[in-house]
Amino acid sequence: MATGGGNRNGTHKLPNLRNSTSFKSKLPPQNVRRSVGAAGSTDSVSGRVRVAVRLRPRNTEELVADADFADCVDLQPELKRLKLRKNNWDSDTFEFDEVLTEFASQKRVYEVVAKPVVESVLEGYNGTVMAYGQTGTGKTYTLGRLGDEDTSARGIMVRAMEDILANISPETDSISVSFLQLYMEYIQDLLNPANDNISIVEDQKTGDVSLPGATVWEIRDQQSFMQLLRLGEAHRIAANTKLNTESSRSHALLMVHVKKSVVEKDEFSLDAQNRSIGNLSPPMLRKGKLIVVDLAGSERIHKSGSEGHMLEEAKSINLSLSALGKCINALAENSPHVPVRDSKLTRLLKDSFGGTSRTSLVITIGPSPRHRAETSSTIMFGQRAMKVENMLKIKEEFDYKSLAKRLEMEIDKLMAENERHQKVYENEIERIRLEAQKRVAEAERNYVEALEEEKTKCQMDYMESIKKLEEKWTINQQKHAINAEINNGAGNEEVVELKRLLQDEVCLRKAAEDEIHNLKSQLFRFSKMELAGGNSDGLQQVLEEESYQKKKLEEEVRVLRSQLAQISVEANQARGYPDGSNSGNPLPGQDSLGLLNHMRSRDGNNGERASITNLHEQVGLQKILSLLESEDANVRIHAVKVVANLAAEEGNQEKIVEAGGLTSLLMLLRTYEDETIRRIAAGAIANLAMNEANQELIMAQGGICLLAMTATDAEDPQTLRMVAGAIANLCGNDKLQMRLRSEGGVKALLGMVRCRHPDVLSQVARGIANFAKCESRASSQGSRHGRSLLIDDGALPWIVQNANSEASLIRRHVELALCHLAQHEINAKDMISGGALWELVRISRDCSREDIRALARRTLTSSSTFQSELRRLRIEV
Ligand code: ADP
Ligand code: MG
Fold first, then answer.
1. For residue 139, how far is its CA from the centre of ligand 1 (angstroms)?
2. Which residue CA neighbors atom 9 of ligand 1 most closely?
3. From ligand 2's centre to the CA of 314, what distance in Å?
4. What is the per-residue pLDDT across 605-641, written as a single tens digit (0 to 9) for each?
5. What pTM value is reported for the model?
6. Which residues line ligand 1 (CB under 6 A)?
7. DSSP annotation of 15
């Protein structure tokens, strides 16, 4: 009887596995209390090798051959006993863990023999199911039947895999299988028969045995496993045929590795829900290994000597099996030495006997009394095996590998995600930055544009309103003046004056009438005396004398007139005039300088010069000048034309003045109201006025008053142009400034702008520019203080108005005038209020002449008043 067994301590312990309580118990592993440590766990529990005996039914041969004999065994399954007959009257009784009769179904065999082992494997133990027995007793039938035709015939291998597959989850767990054959101490891969010398590798630390050279199939489903079994079986048959041996002489090993993650609800376990990134506890993994061994036939080799093996060969064939028997004997007897290393089979099954594996052994026996000895030997083997005590150890460990893999994947995923986010973030930042940049630029541009527009608009509005105000102001002024005049009774004064003149006229008329009356009475008295005295001859003589003288003088006048006429015609022809109508125009150019040049340009025209010189020499300047006072208007006109022509010659100017020509010309302005004479005379005066000495003479002889008077009276633009030209010349004389102004010259000049003829305006502008220039010179020399007289006389509005005149000549003079005025700080305020500042700014920016532009800029920057105003208006020069 072999119940229970010796406790074997000192089992192989894996260094990384925690030792736990170990005790001898037949309790199944699931009932074992265990604790789990940080590094993993292992449970140890004593587990005897469990042995079942299975009896094969009589086969056909036995039914015939042993028909008259009883079976050699008698089974008492309910008592788990087997009686082995010694003879007809005696038998030995053996007790086994299970006694399976010839009627035991494959299913029952599986459940009794293999199922507990399979369950242990799923829980992380190593497990071994082994069949031992004489050839033909049903080892292969028990283990390896595929049950293709009859599913109830499925053997332990097929059922075990079905059970395993049913208890794992394909997502987390894995099954891998190797199928091998051990023959003559060579391990051959049944999945790759060419690989027929696989070596056994033992882990020095853990003592684990592995076959790294063997093919490993991952099993996903039953079909693939069936396929594997078929392939292995086919290879096994082929290999045995080739070696000329029988499968009964070789050992077949099926190795199934199960990796199963632990799904438990206790606080230490990791369930699927807890497998978050935050939970860094590694999942628990249980690794179980199931070995199913279909051993070679246990009959002694000499019995099957028909195979013709040599003795050595036979020894080698049985080496593994006998080594297994020795080991089991040693273990059963608690021998200190177990010859595990004697064979490959014992090395491979090191863990299955006396190791940490849960082991089930099924011994198969036949009923035939002819094989009693072999049956007995088999039973004894089983009996010894039942004494072998194993220390079951659960192989449970933290799956750091899978945790690391999982974490690595998570890290990779997070890194990729992070990178993606980073990229998105960077892109977004870049987009926002560009957008912002664009918007800022746009806003700046818009702002600048708006500012510029606003500035221009303001300037325009400002100028516009200034102009309007000025216009209003002028109108008001005029209205005011008219009102004042009316109020002051100016009209009355005029009436009084007229009355006075009328009175004078009446007096004169009366005097003349008195004179006529007087003369008449004298004549009457004289006639009476003549008649009475008879002195009519004397009177007659006097009258004749008088008449002769008169004729002579008339003759002389006629000659002179014809000469004059001829000269005039010649002069006009020489100038290219078709007739004499414009011959008196002494200012063909835009100014007096132009006139002079014009006259000079004709120096080559000897004919005319000769004529004038001729006339001048023939008649004498004195005589020509005297003709200016001729009562005959034609004479006067011709005479003044000649004088004007002479005056155009610089060389003649002094002579003309010396001979009293200036006085006569001025007299013409004063006396005659004939437009032509006045025009020509004014032209001549203008020419003479180019000379500085003459300018003073003109002044001394009251020329300014006369020119001013003409300026006021005349309507003809050409006359006004001459007068303006003359005054403009005078304006350029520093010495005459005060008198020119006090005698109304400036006012007269400004007054002429009523005539809108550009020639007149350009002369006025020139005069203003000259005057301003003299003023600014005097101011800078310190000889002059106070505001510009031009401003005093109200010239500023016109200046400002014409500063941007379309006529370039006017514009140029006015621009210069503005620059000169601006140079004296005292004018600045008026200029600002009069709107001249804008014009100066414009000149400093737009003037086509660089020198004027620079002058304007200089002027603006040097004046503090302008500067502060410009600052106030935020205008940059
Ligand atoms: P072994 O593998 O031990 O040499 P086998 O399994 O090949 O023996 O069985 C030998 C023969 O016996 C086979 O024909 C098999 O079908 C048959 N056999 C074995 N065991 C049984 C059983 N329990 N019931 C019916 N037939 C069996
Ligand atoms: Mg067999």
1. 7
2. 138
3. 18
4. 444 455 555 566 666 788 888 888 878 878 888 888 8
5. 0.47
6. 56-57, 59, 133, 135-141, 248, 297, 364
7. T
